[in-house]
Amino acid sequence: MLVYLGGLALFGLGLVFYLWRQARREGVSFAAVVHAFFAPPVFDDEETTRTAELLSAVLRAIFLISLIAVPTLTWLNRDRNPALTALLGTTLLGLMLALIGLVRRGHVIQASWLLPSVLTAIFTLVILYFGGLHSPLLVGYLIVIVIAGLFWTLAFSSRVAKRIHELFGGPARN
Q1: CA-CA distance, 72 to 18, in Å (whole number)?
Q2: 23/18 Cα distance (integer angstroms)
Q3: 3-state helix, strand, coil in the chain (%, to 5)
Q4: Of 6, 33, 38, 82, which sits 20 to 30 A from 17 (CA to CA)?
């Protein structure tokens, strides 16, 4: 539990420092920078913006669920290696923040490909260390499949539509 709290405090302080530095650099309030950080980005391409909004919502939901679930599971499973639970949870939080940063920088397609990969790796490690094939977290793979199908289909269809428009409809749109 202490490892998780330490990691959470480190991530929290790092995020607060980053947002505080952004607020000072832009000359706006800290609350405005926090709101802008967690708001989905807007791009010129409508399809990319829609995918980024959906991806941002999923990333924020996973971030908040793991922020609540990991300390609870660490506390409830004190006899089953709480340090490993805390380490995996802190890693998941850090990776979700990194993916949120990727989406904000415009790498929506890359983030939509990385999200299912990261979730698969985390679920596999959790299942491997906590219960094996009898673990109730096997349902997590269904969540990964749904997320992968949703975002990979959106990314692929967006690219195909752009290429078809380039071939038959005139100049390319971004």
Answers
A1: 27
A2: 9
A3: 85, 0, 15
A4: 82
Tokens standing for residue 37: 């950080």
Tell me if 113 sits within 8 A of 147, measured CB to CB.
no
The dihedrals phi and psi of 79, each to the nearest 5 degrees, come to: -85, -5
DSSP per-residue string spanning 134-164: G-GGGHHHHHHHHHHHHHHHHHHHHHHHHHH
Measured CA to CA, the distance from residue 108 to residue 55 in angstroms comes to: 8
Q: Is the pTM of this model over 0.90?
A: no
Residue pair 90/7 in contact by the 8 Å Cβ criterion? yes
Angstrom CA distances, 138 to 6, 38, 49, 132, 145, stand at: 29, 30, 32, 9, 12
